[in-house]
Design brief:
- It is globular, with a radius of gyration of 18 Å.
- It is 65% helix and 0% strand.
- Helix 3 packs antiparallel against helix 4.
C-alpha cells in the first residue's frame, strides 16, 4: 500500500539522503554524496534541455551555438561536482544562475510571460544562486567530512 508520509520522508525529508537543512559541518560523506548526486542530476537535466533548445532554436532567444556550448559546459561541470566533488567545477556551475540574471537584464523576459511568472523565475534563480554557496562549501570540505554509518542500515539508497 502506498503511504504518502513514507514517500515524502524518503525522497523529500530524510536526514540521510536529502540533508538539505543539515549544516555542512554536521554532514557525513554519505549525506554529502547523496546531496551532490541529486544536485548533479537536476542541473544536468535542466541544462541538458537548455543545450538542446539552444541548438534547435526553440529557446526564447532563438538558436544560439554559444548558449548551447555554455549550457553543455555547465552540464559537464555539474557532472564533475557530482562525481569528483571538484570545488572549481562548483564555482563554474555557480555562474549559471548569474548568467540567467544577466540574460534577463540584457534581453528581458519572453513576451508572453506575465508578472507572476517573471517573479517566480527570479525567485527560483536567486534561491539556486544561494544554494550554490552550499554546494561550493560541501565540495571544499568534502575530504574532511567524517565517515558515519547511517542510522537505519536496512533503508535503501536514494537512487
Amino acid at each position: 500500500m502506498f503511504k504518502l508520509q513514507n514517500f515524502l520522508k524518503r525522497y523529500v525529508w530524510d536526514e540521510e539522503t536529502t540533508p538539505y537543512f543539515t549544516r555542512v559541518a554536521n554532514l557525513s560523506r554519505s549525506q554529502a554524496d547523496s546531496e551532490l548526486f541529486f544536485f548533479a542530476i537536476m542541473f544536468s537535466v535542466l541544462f541538458g534541455v537548455a543545450t538542446f533548445t539552444s541548438i534547435t532554436g526553440q529557446a526564447p532567444y532563438g538558436a544560439s551555438n554559444n548558449a548551447a556550448i555554455y549550457c553543455f559546459t555547465i552540464v559537464a561541470g555539474a557532472v564533475l561536482v557530482g562525481t569528483v566533488k571538484n570545488m572549481y567545477a562548483a564555482i563554474y556551475v555557480t555562474s549559471a544562475p548569474v548568467a540567467v540574471i544577466l540574460a534577463l537584464l540584457l534581453f528581458g523576459f519572453p513576451g508572453k510571460m506575465v508578472l507572476v511568472d517573471q517573479l517566480v523565475l527570479i525567485v527560483i534563480d536567486l534561491v539556486l544562486l544561494r544554494y550554490m554557496w552550499r554546494v561550493i562549501t560541501i565540495c571544499r570540505v568534502y575530504k574532511m567530512l567524517p565517515h558515519r554509518e547511517p542510522e537505519n542500515k536496512t533503508r535503501r539508497r536514494l537512487f
